[in-house]
Amino acid sequence: MKIRYVEKCSKVTGEVLNNYIEEKRWFGWKRLGFTINMGYGSVYNYFNNKDKKTLLKEVLDHKKLCLNFIDVIEYPTIKEY
Questions:
Q1: Which domain holds residue 42?
Q2: What's the domain count of the chain?
Q3: pTM (2 decimals)?
Q4: Is the dihedral of CA 80, 23, 4, 64 positive or negative?
Q5: Would you give the end-to-end CA distance of the chain in angstroms?
Q6: Full pLDDT tens readout for the chain, 81 residues
Q7: Are 32 and 23 in contact (CB under 8 A)?
């Protein structure tokens, strides 16, 4: 699994507000998320958290994968302002 983190930073202070996670696919990077179905419509939310390890654990739990059995290759982090 090839991943990279995207840090969403404040324009004024430069402080990290949230981290998002992206996965390498065939045609580029895709930001990971999940769908919430409300019966009359659905919403797509991205996985986000301030802590990178908690974010990775949350994504692996959602995909029903275990860190012991897969290789995670982490690419450099991108900062968005």
A1: 2-80
A2: 1
A3: 0.86
A4: positive
A5: 27
A6: 999 999 999 999 989 999 999 999 999 999 999 999 998 999 999 999 999 999 999 999 999 999 999 999 999 999 999
A7: yes
